[in-house]
């Protein structure tokens, strides 16, 4: 497997004789090794933008001087959105590269595959690229910390919104047949309770499927007036396009993992997505309201310098940068102790951290008993040219 990314700082030549210390769990006097995996290829390759944004942002951080005399050596490997490859690549990062920690490894199924392994090895598994609740469970997996809002809470918010907007309507759920998709079913069941089986029709797909056309037809035939698409980008674009082509007019709810204009809305056809309702917790780079926002200006500068040619309408680049910008305060809080134990301690003690790419009012907070790093979202609707935010910032407590 080709090594996709390797960041190294220019060698430091001291004025006096110096004997470099061997790395201890990925840390030397001059570097900190951090690892990740991403879907640079395979059925979810649109998420490769996240890994590339990681790389660019760490390059920027190193050029700002790094932290306490150390630069980050970032290693990001392709797992093709395949759990077996994810396990292989994470073992490589831990056992061969001896990384100090993992950061924002992508995907529910992928992270599930090595969840027990990294906890047994006591490797900080930080800011996981999934909203599955299993990655926000300090009791059972103390070395694993989530990043984005919980899929289950997102589904609860959607369910309550659907009940308000379309009371008594039949609901269709298109879901990816893994833990990612099933968390959305659980969230709707939490809200609908005994009514779930009566009003909800389910249609699953596999990540290896070519299309979701048959699922869309079955949900339309079930006379669903509300459609939740718990789908990754390729299939999200397909369902948006298919719904429009069938002249089906449900209240269409879309998971925030597929909110990218560049990766989802544009391939689907912006006019076909009109009225789709989603939610977000970070700034959409295609939205004119953020054009001069300091956080997006910073992000755009990083992309332009370190990732020229990147699609600046693709929100996945903002997502990837945001994860790194959440990791940087952890490194700064570590002082001069970058042991795995202290990395975990600092990651689980973040207080009202403002990440410049997150929406105004959303702050990062963690504790040893709260692994929900980001617990707030805001609803938005596709208006034809951009997502239009509406309503208040919502949290789990407000659902």
At CATH level 3, the topology of the largest domain is: Rossmann fold
Category by helix and strand content: alpha/beta
Tertiary shape: globular
CATH architecture of the largest domain: 3-Layer(aba) Sandwich
**Fraction in helix:** 25-40%
Strand sequence of the main sheet, in spatial order? 1-3-2-4-5-6
Mean pLDDT across every amino acid position: 92
Structurally, the number of domains stands at 2
Strand content: 15-25%
Q: CATH superfamily membership of the largest domain, which one?
A: Response regulator
Q: How many runs of DSSP E, i.e. beta strands? A: 13
Order of helices and strands: EEHEHEHEEHEHHEHEHEHEHHHEE
Based on CA atoms alone, the radius of gyration comes out at 21 Å
CATH class of the largest domain: Alpha Beta
Biggest sheet architecture: 6 strands, mixed
Low-confidence stretches: 1-22
Instruction: Measure the end-to-end span.
Output: 44 Å
Summarize, please:
By secondary structure, the chain is α/β, with parallel strands linked by helices. It contains twelve helices and 13 strands. The chain folds into two domains: 225 residues, Response regulator (Rossmann fold, 3-Layer(aba) Sandwich); 151 residues, Response regulator (Rossmann fold, 3-Layer(aba) Sandwich), CATH 3.40.50.
């Amino acid at each position: 497997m080709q090594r996709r990314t390797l960041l190294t700082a220019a060698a430091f030549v001291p004025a006096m004789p110096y004997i470099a210390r061997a790395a201890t769990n990925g840390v030397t006097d001059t570097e900190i090794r951090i690892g990740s995996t991403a879907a640079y290829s395979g059925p979810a390759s649109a998420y490769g933008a996240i890994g590339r944004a990681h790389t660019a942002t760490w390059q920027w951080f190193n050029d700002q001087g790094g932290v306490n005399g150390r630069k980050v050596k970032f290693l990001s490997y392709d797992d093709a959105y395949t759990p077996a490859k994810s396990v292989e690549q994470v073992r490589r990062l831990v056992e061969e590269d001896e990384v100090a920690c993992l950061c924002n490894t992508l995907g529910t199924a992928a992270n599930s595959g090595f969840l027990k392994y990294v906890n047994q090895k006591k490797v900080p598994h930080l800011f996981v690229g999934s909203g599955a609740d299993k990655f926000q469970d300090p009791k059972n997996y103390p070395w694993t910390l989530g990043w984005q809002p919980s899929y289950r809470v997102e589904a609860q918010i959607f369910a309550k919104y659907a009940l308000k907007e379309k009371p008594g309507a039949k609901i269709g759920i298109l879901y990816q047949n893994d833990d990612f998709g099933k968390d959305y079913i659980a969230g709707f069941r939490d809200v609908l309770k005994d009514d779930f089986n009566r009003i909800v029709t389910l249609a699953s797909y596999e990540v290896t499927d070519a299309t979701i056309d048959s699922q869309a037809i079955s949900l339309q035939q079930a006379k669903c007036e509300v459609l939740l698409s718990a789908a990754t980008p390729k299939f999200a674009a397909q369902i948006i396009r298919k719904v429009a082509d069938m002249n089906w007019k449900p209240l269409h709810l879309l998971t925030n993992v597929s909110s990218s204009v560049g990766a989802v809305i544009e391939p689907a056809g912006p006019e076909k997505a009109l009225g789709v309702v989603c939610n977000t917790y970070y700034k959409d780079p295609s939205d004119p309201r953020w054009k001069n926002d300091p956080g997006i200006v910073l992000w755009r500068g990083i992309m332009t310098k370190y990732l020229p040619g990147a699609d600046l309408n693709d929100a996945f680049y903002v997502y990837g940068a945001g994860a790194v910008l959440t990791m940087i305060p952890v490194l700064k809080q570590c002082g001069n102790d970058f042991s795995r134990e202290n990395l975990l301690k600092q990651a689980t003690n973040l207080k009202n951290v403002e990440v410049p790419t997150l929406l105004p009012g959303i702050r990062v907070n963690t504790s040893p008993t709260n692994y929900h790093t980001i617990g707030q979202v805001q609803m938005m609707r596709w208006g034809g040219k951009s997502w239009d935010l509406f309503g208040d910032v919502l949290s789990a407590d407000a659902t």
